[in-house]
Amino acid sequence: MNSPSSLLEATAALARGDLASARPLAQAATRDAPELADAWLMRAVSAMAAGDLDDAGESFARMSVLAPNDARGHAGLGQIAGARGDAHAALTHLHEAALRQPHWSEPSLRIGERLRATRPEQAGGWFLRAALGEPLQPAALSGLLGCALDLRREAPPPREFLLPRPLPRVSIVRSDAGSAHADAVRAAIDRYVKPLLPDVELIEPRTQEASRAAWLNKAIAQAKGEVIVVLRGDVEPCSDEFMRAVLEELMYSDLVGAVGTHWLVAPAVAWTGAPYLQGWPLRRDGGRVAITMHGFDAPVSRGMQALDGTVLALRRELAQRLRFDEGFGGWHLCELEFSHRAYRHGLKLAALAPCAVVQDGQRPADDGFRAEISRFATVHAVPPPFAHRQLPGVTAHVEDGASALAACAWLERICAQRWRLSWESPPSPFEA
Description:
Blueprint: H1 5-15, H2 19-32, H3 37-50, H4 53-66, H5 71-83, H6 87-100, H7 105-115, H8 120-132, H9 138-151, E1 170-174, H10 182-192, E2 201-203, H11 212-222, E3 227-231, E4 236-237, H12 241-249, E5 255-257, E6 260-261, E7 277-278, E8 282-285, E9 288-293, E10 300-302, E11 306-307, E12 311-315, H13 316-322, H14 334-344, E13 349-352, E14 357-359, H15 367-379, E15 394-398, H16 401-415
Helix pairs in contact: 1-2, 1-3, 2-3, 3-4, 3-5, 4-5, 5-6, 6-7, 7-8, 8-9, 8-16, 9-16
């Protein structure tokens, strides 16, 4: 059926914000083409914009009869029912919309918002569905992390680890002095690492080195452990899960870190943006801890092209064979370059989500960083740096590292649903 001119004119009027003209034109369109679903949709939308819920409801209902497989009719009826305070009817219609168009993010987002206060774990599944759908819904990622925060005071689901036997000897190398946190880092290693690995070796710089790359090569040459774990100077473990997760993943991957990217386009993993950036870093922020969520892969994301260098874990013989490039004469990019070179040699890189360490905030760029960017561009054939984009992902604050990890455990449980969302129909929002 051809669209009447009144419908085209109503669409144009609404697009330019002329509600006074759009509404009578939309009403005329339903008189001119009473069997056309799009005419009733335009009438409903214009009525909603004018605050006339009765006319909007009747128009969405008529549209649903004319186009029963169109999700927009039920989505509109759900929105109206919610505005009237009828939660049951709102969820019923939104669920019908989700069934008709599972990859449309809007119904799933609205269901998540309605369930969060009473059923945060179930709501998290709906936010995840919205975050994976189209169009992009920034509120979906925030809602997903919010549900995990709501649940963090409940006992998180336990995680089981498959560890190599016998356990390898481990050498932890701090890549710089990190004097502001040196005592805290040592205490954290004693508390969280030594119960599992009593003979763990800690190697720290005692004097000022020429560069981070030079120090790391020197430290790795003297290390006695079969496994090397490089920590930035301000990075400290915040759970006994840290070393367990690292040793487990080293049975499958050659290099393990905290944040990585599936596609490196510049000498900084964050520049790649979503959906390639993966990891849930924990950072100190005053007396609190900030969780930033990048992506949904948990507890590990494999197939990385580069790791950010917060943490690098690998076998000693691999570290000694590859070596850090001492042409990077500062303190910024040698770990990133090392990981990307490993990738280009065909090695397997993985990022843990979360990696149970806490660190300081991002360091500002300086002249040394800019010089290392130039060096990186001469070594690796990636596109030249472009203007820095805002760091993707969403951030929330909690009291301490334990609360952050409890939230991440729930986040991991919710994100585990990701792999069945592509084939499973949206579940009933009324199920417990």
